[in-house]
Amino acid sequence: MTTIMVIRHAEKPVGDGSPHGVDINGDPDPQSLTPRGWQRAGALVNLFSGGPATSVRSTALPTPTHLFASMVAIGSSSRRPRETLDPLAERLGLTINTRFAKPQVPDLARAAMAADGVVLIAWEHNLIPSLAAAIRGSAEGIPQVWPDDRYDVIWIFEPSQESPGHLFLQHPQRLLAGDRAEVIAQ
Predict the structure, then answer these.
(1) DSSP string for residues in 94-133
(2) What is the pLDDT tens value at each position of the chain, 186 positions in all?
(3) Which of 19, 123, 142, 171 has the highest Cβ tally under 10 A?
(4) Which residues on adjacent β-strands are paired with residue 154?
(5) 96-97, strands of its sheet edge to edge
(6) What contacts 155, CB < 8 A, 6 or more positions away?
(7) H-helix or E-strand containing 89?
């Protein structure tokens, strides 16, 4: 079975005020990450790439072999999930699978579970609990709401030898100032 890790895309603009979204070139773009989001995307590289050991790198986090982010499609023009994984994809020499639109959670879950290796998914936070339930086969023991203000947690689904499905774990990223040490409450 495959290990699957799920993160929320990095920080986004909230409302019409600052911080504003900017594209990779620094040009204003409300569908892109904020400067803090770009910082998180860069920090995720060492967290997941097996780079130099740091206080934030946990040996418990495997290096992904497959990356998934939602496609930019009608009804969802956000580029944030892909932008969150772009620096990691570049470091690892991987292509980001963007064939699934945000609502295609069951299809995404099937594709992730069918992948051979370690999967990392960056997705829309409101849909992550339903994605988690699809991966695990049940919503039991999984928080049913991903808080609007949390960008700093990894949900991990490890293959289980003792029961069918996946074990559910949470891991705080602790990458940027202000990141919290606690996981998302159930």
Answers:
(1) --EE--S-TT-HHHHHHHHHHSSSEEEEEE-GGGHHHHHH
(2) 799 999 999 999 987 778 999 999 999 999 999 999 999 999 999 999 876 545 554 456 999 999 999 998 766 678 999 999 999 999 999 999 999 999 999 999 999 999 999 999 999 999 999 999 999 988 999 999 999 999 999 999 998 876 667 899 999 999 999 999 999 998
(3) 123
(4) 7, 171
(5) 96-97, 66-69, 118-123, 3-8, 153-159, 166-172
(6) 5, 6, 7, 128, 132, 142, 168, 169, 170
(7) helix 80-92
Q: Is 4 helix (H, G, I), strand (E, B) or coil?
A: strand
Q: State the SS3 of 9-78.
A: CCCCCCCCCCCCCECCCCCECCCCCCHHHHHHHHHHHHHHHCCCCCCCCCCCCCCCCEEEECCCECCECC
What is the rounded CA–CA span in Å between residue 28 and residue 31? 9
d(CA 48, CA 184): 20
